[in-house]
Amino acid sequence: MNVNISTYCTVSNHLVKVNGTEYFEGAPDEPNFLKALYQKLEMSYPKFFKMDDLSKLGVLGVELLKLHNPEISNYSDDEIGLVFQTSKGCISSDLSHQEKVNKKSPSPSIFVYTLANIVIGEISIKNKWFGESILFIAEENDTSSTINYLKSLILTNKSKCCILGIIDAYDNKTELKMALITKQELGIALNEQNLKAIFEK
Amino acid sequence: MVYIGAENIISPLGETAHENFEALTKGQTGLKLIPGGGIKDEDLYLSVINKIDGLDTIKAVEKSIQDSLSQVHQNELGRTELIISTTKGEINLLKNGDDQHATLDEYKRRISASLPWVKNTTLVSNACISGVLALIVGHDLISTNQVDSVIVTGVDMVSEFTIAGFQAFFAMSPGLCKPFDKNRDGINLGEGVATIIMSKNKAAFKSTPLQSLGGSAANDANHISGPSRTGEGLYRSMKNTLKNAQVNSNEIDFISAHGTATAYNDEMESIAFDRMDLSTVPLHSLKGYYGHTFGAAGMIESVICLQSMRANKLIACIGFEETGTSKPLNIIKQTTDKNLNTVLKTASGFGGCNASILFKK
């Protein structure tokens, strides 16, 4: 058995692709692209509107994977590991909180998003997943730690499959690369090169 | 086999693991009243090394790692990875509008630059479970033969940024925190650094190391800032940790709990320990000595686990007086001698995350 890449999706600014094929493109001047993608996915999840952009993007990515690979729902609630990496993390929420601190009026609903792993919490709540999860800080192209740890989760049977997420949302940048990683006989082996190749499609 | 040792802590209580452990056995705390420590100039109990926003975390990390390295034969470590655990790094830089240097990827870059011989640096930022999770990552990378050794270092500073956030949550105690106590009323914040080395090579350690049996993380899937009422994630994490290590609940000699001293967190932990049949095992939280040090907490507390095992000593849970959780626990009231073979360390945090790891002699 190999650790292989299954369904994958990318969000690069306003362009959304699933398995390399275009799924949705938001208008370039659309100020609320994440909301537009939420509507395109016909979601009904009011909590979405309370989230920061990083969490919104992560939650939407998982919906894209589920839509194109309903088999994800066959795994039991603690068999799916969430292994994410981000470069700038929650810098947008950090800046918002700092602004509030400078005015001596911090808000708990902003402060809670100054932890970048909240995106994993939001995905876990939305999907009722109780499995392994971790957030690494790494540059977009430096996926070695994320891949190594993800492989160890599958090799030690702590997770049956994993969702790998490379995520950043700050300023005008909205970048997501997400893939379902499973143990299969056939498929594209999980390594840095293959990951780079599929995400560049 | 994964060996673990060469531990260090830098905190207001000392600059080595031994100095810190000695201070704890004497009942000393790093917490002190800082006049005007709050964002509206309220007095606050904090465990700070110098002053708020004053810790040079990079220098402190370097110092902590150097002390750990002095306890190993460096040429015996083999393929080595550095794993940093932190929630906010040097977030105080944001106060001056420096959002370039305040990010964690920049923080990671600056720490790596100070240790050029380390091949790969990883940074785990997973709220209050970061430290325990970083140790689990280290264990798993070694056990799946992807590296030979890891240096794990946990760090966080007390900053106006975090003080303000927890004040907004009304989560701060006006006095000294009281983990698991009936009158507990919130957390104290603290800062520090701690380092541990893990290796598949026992001979790398100058003094006899202990063993890591690995751990597991689980999510509550319930709420981003409130713990589960049933302790679900912590329960599942401990269940998996024990199952994977093939250890039974009745083999555990001591639990180093998270115990932040907020009403909901400590209640949640008591439920999870009860569900695991662990409510009679001696247990403490160290928040009464160090405050909550976030990304450093799991690391500092794990170092004390290792020191406790070496000294066969249970450290008292200061701040605790009277049972205050719906499921009673065996809280350590006085520092006492006990032979410690198998020790469980747990942590829980925002985002509904929970983690646990086992250490063995």
Give a written overview of the molecule.
The complex is a heterodimer of chains A (201) and B (361). By secondary structure, chain A is α+β, with helices and mostly antiparallel strands. Chain A has a single domain, classed as Peroxisomal Thiolase, Chain A, domain 1 (3-Layer(aba) Sandwich), CATH 3.40.47.10. Helix content of chain A is 35%, strand content 28%. Chain A has 7 helices and 8 strands, in the order βββααβαααβαβββα. In chain A, strands 1, 2, 3, 4, 5, 6, 7 and 8 form an 8-stranded mixed beta sheet that branches. In chain A, strand 2 (15-18) and strand 3 (21-25) form a beta hairpin. The radius of gyration of chain A is 17 Å and the shape is globular. The model of chain A has no long low-confidence stretch (mean pLDDT 95). Chain B is an alpha/beta fold and 361 residues long. Chain B folds into 2 domains: 2-204, Peroxisomal Thiolase, Chain A, domain 1; 210-360, Peroxisomal Thiolase, Chain A, domain 1, CATH 3.40.47.10. The two termini of chain B are 12 Å apart. Chain B contains 9 helices and 16 strands. Chain B has helices spanning 17-25, 57-69, 104-113, 130-143, 160-168, 232-245, 263-275, 287-290, 297-311, and strands spanning 2-10, 32-34, 44-47, 80-85, 120-124, 149-156, 189-190, 192-199, 210-219, 254-256, 282-284, 313-314, 330-331, 336-337, 342-349, 353-360. Helix content of chain B is 28%, strand content 23%. In chain B, the strands form 3 sheets. An 11-stranded mixed beta sheet of chain B has the order 5-4-6-8-1-9-16-15-10-11-13. Chain B has a 3-stranded mixed beta sheet with strand order 2-3-7, with no helix packed on it.
Question: Any chance you could write out the topology, listing elements then pairs?
Answer:
The complex is a heterodimer of chains A (201) and B (361).
Chain A: E1 2-12, E2 15-18, E3 21-25, H1 33-40, H2 53-68, E4 80-86, H3 91-102, H4 108-111, H5 118-127, E5 133-137, H6 144-155, E6 161-170, E7 173-184, E8 188-189, H7 192-200
Parallel strand pairs in A: 4-5, 4-6
Antiparallel strand pairs in A: 1-2, 1-7, 1-8, 2-3, 6-7
Helix pairs in contact in A: 2-5
Chain B: E1 2-10, H1 17-25, E2 32-34, E3 44-47, H2 57-69, E4 80-85, H3 104-113, E5 120-124, H4 130-143, E6 149-156, H5 160-168, E7 189-190, E8 192-199, E9 210-219, H6 232-245, E10 254-256, H7 263-275, E11 282-284, H8 287-290, H9 297-311, E12 313-314, E13 330-331, E14 336-337, E15 342-349, E16 353-360
Parallel strand pairs in B: 3-7, 4-5, 4-6, 10-11, 10-15, 11-13
Antiparallel strand pairs in B: 1-8, 1-9, 2-3, 6-8, 9-16, 12-14, 15-16
